[in-house]
Specification:
The complex is a heterodimer of chains A (111) and B (110). Chain A has strands spanning 4-6, 10-13, 19-25, 31-38, 42-49, 56-57, 64-70, 73-78, 87-94, 101-102, 106-110. With 111 residues, chain A is mainly β. In chain A, strands 2, 4, 5, 6, 9, 10 and 11 form a seven-stranded mixed sheet that branches. Chain A has a four-stranded antiparallel sheet with strand order 1-3-8-7, with no helix packed on it. Chain A is globular and about 40 Å long. Chain A starts with a strand and ends with a strand. By secondary structure, chain B is an all-beta fold. The chains are: A mainly beta (111), B mainly beta (110).
Chain lengths: 111, 110
């Protein structure tokens, strides 16, 4: 079974802090994604990566950056956290097929 | 732009059949996927329609009609464990990314 893990289930940070969210997948997938999920808005794509050191902006990249130094690891960085970045963050990976495999999510609260 | 619409909430009775619709406006896509998400959990893949027609997987079926810009997920013999949110998503043919609907919360009553 594909396993996608995220570094934290819950995080509480203060406004202005730098926040790192990490995601690791164990299936050698080329594609990895970061979404945020807010009530009534579904999943919105922040960034994705189709290979090591490659990244593409999604629909809502403002205020975020990403890093993919190794194939199995995709990190989301909030350079200066703001209260409107309070959300559920979901990481996913995808191989050659169309199925995306999701991690358990990180619920981030920015105070 | 690309957009998908699905009802925000559907209520059904245990043992019954329920259909969750998804209508979309896209310039082009490869296929329609459905994902299930239980409260507090991660979305998990349910089904994919690359071609028009019906795909069946156990109690769940999914349908796509490109000419009508419409798809649906059909759940039969509903069980309490089917209480969850269901998302439709299309795979954009310009960048292979998924565009997601806002999700339908399925409430099942005994």
């Amino acid at each position: 079974d594909v396993k996608v893990t995220q570094s934290s289930r819950y995080l509480v940070k203060r406004t202005g802090e730098k926040v790192f969210l990490e995601c690791v997948q164990d299936m050698d997938h080329e594609n990895m994604f970061w979404y945020r999920q807010d009530p009534g808005l579904g999943l919105r794509l922040i960034y994705f990566s189709y290979d090591v050191k490659m990244k593409e902006k999604g629909d809502i990249p403002e205020g975020y950056s990403v890093s993919r130094e190794k194939k199995e690891r995709f990190s989301l960085i909030l350079e200066s956290a703001s209260t409107n970045q309070t959300s559920m963050y979901l990481c996913a990976s995808r191989g050659q097929g169309q199925t995306q495999y999701f991690g358990p999510g990180t619920r981030l609260l920015v105070l | 732009g690309q957009s998908l619409e699905q009802p925000s909430e559907v209520t059904a009775v245990e043992g019954a059949i329920v259909q969750i619709n998804c209508t979309y406006q896209t310039s082009g896509f490869y296929g329609l996927s459905w994902y299930q998400q239980h409260d507090g959990g991660a979305p998990t893949f349910l089904s994919y329609n690359g071609l028009d027609g019906l795909e069946e997987t156990g109690r769940f079926s999914s349908f796509l009609s490109r000419s009508d810009s419409y798809g649906y997920l059909l759940l039969q013999e509903l069980q309490m464990k089917d209480s969850a949110s269901y998302f439709c998503a299309v795979e954009d043919d310009s960048n292979y990314q998924l565009i997601w609907g806002a999700g339908t919360k399925l409430i099942i009553k005994p």
